[in-house]
Amino acid sequence: MSTSVHIDRLSGTLRFPGDADFEEACFGRVFNARRPSDRTPAAVLTAGSEQDVVDGVRLALERGWQVAVRSGGHSWAAWSVREDALLIDLGGLREMAYDPRTGIVTATPGIKGGDELNPYLGEFGRFFNGGHCPSVGIGGFLLQGGQGWNARGWGWAAENVVAIDVVTAEGELVRADETHHSDLFWAARGAGPGFFGVVTRFHLRTRPLPKHLAHTVHAYPLDLFDEVMTWLHGMHHTVSDLVEIVALTQTPPTGDGPVLLVTGVSMTDTAEQAAEALAPLHANPYADRALLRIEARPTTLAEQLRGQRLANPEGHRYLVDNAWLTGSAAEVVPAIRKAFTEQPTRQTFTIWFSMAPLRELPDMAFSLQSEIYCATYVVHDDPGRDAELRGWLDEAMAAMRPVTAGQYLGDSDFTVRQLRFMGDAQWERLQEIRAARDPKGLFVGHLSAGTVTNTNDWER
What we know:
By secondary structure, the protein is of the alpha+beta class. Helix content is 27%, strand content 24%. Helix 7 packs across helix 10 and helix 10 runs antiparallel to helix 11 (386-399).
């Protein structure tokens, strides 16, 4: 196959260092205002079509560049900005199509799950459990596994990928599913930025839009943290799988300081079903000491997304880390106390996300989870505080080490800390597929400070 590419036939835009708009091309769609200063791509291709992606990969082959990919720009470490690589930005591919006969929606990677995909699907009475932050593009989200709405009940979003259109390391556009190019299909569901191809289109299984959403919110003073979280730890696995359960420490917009929120969002068809599903959360023995109680109040997806948007504001600096937790309440609650009760900035928040009881995962690269997911998001605006705040976050994560099983790619930065993120057998298989599919290392792989080993740092 000839890889000769005529740059002038690209429908998108190719920018090089020194071009007036190169900096904007590199960073304009990066969500985190804390952006890398030590990585400069060889060029940035803002793709205008699938053919541009094919041509971009072939151009990289021709010029000896590696390839990095940007879908939504929400990775905290700006994984797409890589030294001397061709950055292929997929933000210009703006296509969605729903097939009412099959319930399958096809969408390009830069489509935003909350802002674009679900409003579109809502016109057909359908829903996809995409990311909570509405501006997250579906591409990186799905490749990392996809911890979306009600993951404890509906599973990981990647489980609902039925096929992908992908440009391979040979510069060929193919359709991958369970029977065609099944190795690529397996790898795409969990490899994250380590995937060795450019997905240009996802084919996704949708579900009926829930007819009745309701939410419960209890707000507690932080001096009840141990008591409330010990109770929640002991009962969350008993709640209906139609309820998303999240506990978080957050400072309300009009509040003087952080509070502990225990929340449940039920996704049912009737108010009666919602009341029954949420009832176990109302039985909190400390409910009479709550600062605020909202119980089984009707809500909408739009209202929930507004809350997510307020918690994840654009234009700010983010330092983020996470852990899959396992152990008894007596072990876990003290380990997470620092992350929940010592907020270093007003906008910092920490979440405790229930995945219990654990569902069995299908055969895919994504393969590591536990009953509790914990992530801390340090949000601020002062570049001078980056090192201090990273130090606080490192200390909070170190306190969780005794109960940490691994981490989730979506909230990770391997340049700072790298833990296990998939099963050992799946990691070995992923390396075998990569060696076969991308033997020359065209695609950049996971960004890290060293070799990615899929082991917890204290086990090395």
